[in-house]
Amino acid sequence: MKICFVISDIKTETCGTTVVILKKAHERGHNVYVMSVGDFIFHRDENISLRCKKIPASLQGETVAEFWEQVQDDKLKTKAVKSSDMDVVFLRNNPTEETSDRHWAEHSGIAFARMIQQSGVLVLNDAFAMSHAFIDKLYFEELPSEIKPDSLITRNKEDILKFWERMGKKMVLKPLEGSGGQDVYLIDKDKKNLNQIVDTISAKGYIIAQEFLPEVSKGDVRVILMNGKILEENGEKAIIRRVNSDSSEFRSNLALGAKAKKAKLTPEIEKIVSLTAPKLIRDGLFFVGLDIVKDKLIEINVLSPGGLDYCEKIKLPAFTDTVVEAIERKIEYKKYYKNSLTNKELATMD
After folding, report:
1. pLDDT grade, residue 59 (50/70/90)?
2. Exposed, middle or buried by CB within 10 Å (0-12, 13-18, 19+), for 157?
3. Segment 167-183 mean pLDDT
4. How far is CA 241 from CA 65, 148, 275, in A?
5. What's the mean per-residue pLDDT of the chain?
């Protein structure tokens, strides 16, 4: 299998979920390529090319960090390869983390991937589904209301104040587009800095006001889904509790210092997955992260969900064999069905 991983930037990529999956695909003997989102090449009347690094079969690394350091090294050169030569293009760049000087990178990966997908290459997640779910907090609002906290999306300060009153003078404010816990604020009875916070967030776009869930003080749970099911390996499920050591910090993002712990599958999580999965399967979203507080889904990540890089540290399987095996099966299905299955169908076919 020839698989190309699209990431934000090879030089700055850290050893997260993408890299551990990429390394496993390499260990399983596949032809693995990696490219930055700025390295698509379009020429009229030709297939899109990918300026990427092919990871040599001989490349070794005892640890993920050692492996990735060799990939990042300038000694390993990039080369233009036709996208039509690939079996799979796996979109793993995160548009929501792009800086203001890289606005061009936010939509370009998905836009080029749509064209590659139409040429017959398997794209994961389905590029048209990713376009639809690009603002994932808005896509989140398409899910059943009974599994979500109450929320409001607006840029109007008066609307936000009315919502705050209705929520008992306690709510969470965050940008509609963003990730990693950045610009997320808890507004309580004293409304401290509310005007400044609203101005700061609204300067970047829409604001989402969300009901505050007291249980968030105990952390949240990241559930990783693949093909609409909880990712599982050797009887263990990819369910990770994220708890911040600072009890006054209501955000539980690992990037902000939260600690990862093993978590159990609860009836509440099962219900949320059962109500979310049909839509994800229909839309062609292969690899998705759900963030859950008790019986409420608080966020969904379809663009570049992470968490697998923490699994072995908390005595869970790496889950990477299972992910790569699932992609291998999709290529087999594509071959056996002689390209009669759509990308969307293949993307979530178990």
Report:
1. very high
2. middle
3. 86
4. 24, 18, 21
5. 93
191 — pLDDT class (breaks 50, 70, 90): confident
What is the CATH architecture assignment of 150-212? 2-Layer Sandwich (3.30)
- Selected from 3.30.470.20, 3.40.50.2300, 1.20.1290.10, 3.40.50.720, the CATH number assigned to the domain covering 215-316 reads 3.30.470.20
What are the phi and psi torsion angles at 45 (to 5°)? 70, 15
Q: According to the model, what pLDDT value does residue 214 have?
A: 92
Token pair 């908390």: residue: 314
Q: Would the pTM count as exceeding 0.90?
A: yes
Say which CATH class 2-124 falls into: alpha beta
Encode pLDDT of 285-316 as tens digits: 999 999 999 999 999 999 999 999 999 999 99
